[in-house]
Amino acid sequence: MLTGIGLGLRFKYIEDLQQNNHAVKWLELLADHYHDINNPIIAKVQQLCAKFPCVLHAVNFSLASSGEINQNYLSSIKAIVDLCNPLWVSDHLSFSSIGDIHLHELLPFAFTETMLQHIATKIKIIQHTLKRPFLIENISSYIRIKDSQMSEAQFIARLAQQADCGILLDVNNIVVSCHNHNESIEEYCATIPFARVKQLHMAGAITKNNLLIDTHSRPIAADVMQLYRKIIEQHGYIPTCLEWDMDLPDFATISKEIEKLNGFI
Ligand SMILES: [Fe+2]
Prior knowledge:
Shape: globular
Strand content: 15-25%
Distance between the termini: 15 Å
Bound molecules: fe (ii) ion
Order of helices and strands: EHEHEHEEEHEHEHHEEEHEH
Largest sheet: 8 strands, parallel, barrel
Number of strands: 12
Radius of gyration: 18 Å
């Protein structure tokens, strides 16, 4: 059971997190940092995992790629699960590889009935193998694919039901995608089955040429905070994690963002 605000663990903050004078209550580990289980950093991370509850976040299941699930990747994630004992594992609703070629992006796809079945099958295999709940995360997107048969939120709702999995709702990504596609945030949120939302992500984006771009490089924007407040008021506490990946600030800045989020729960 998680309480309070969590932080996406970045190596820069390991020593700060070992101290007790901060408000971080749990950690989200980026799975793709730990594929080499002989990496000495893993011992430090394990020490932190003994102190804080943790969850595991992956970026390379590439669920929307054609073909079967990547068994090598799944085995590697299983090894990390065995080392760190996370409460759940998550990844994005996207594709990030074609065959053996990694694209290093989380890319959108058409929300079709065929894709719904395809991804649901993969999620069932993941949950069965890892023996952990799996959460699917909404990405930030910059194009919609015209062959879609339903909205992103409808797809997520149906997928979670079909695969019997959880949802990791990225509040910043909702704002980014709805802005970029001129879609309604209210409609998006009204379509999401919040009973399945087990985690929230909060992060900062930038604006460029009237597009919002999800950079994880800034403090959380005011409109994202406002949406967060509404979600918490309506649905109560949902484990919330701050993500910061670029232009990593000092720990005092991270702590300030954590304190802001604490003010809403
Ligand atoms: Fe996220």
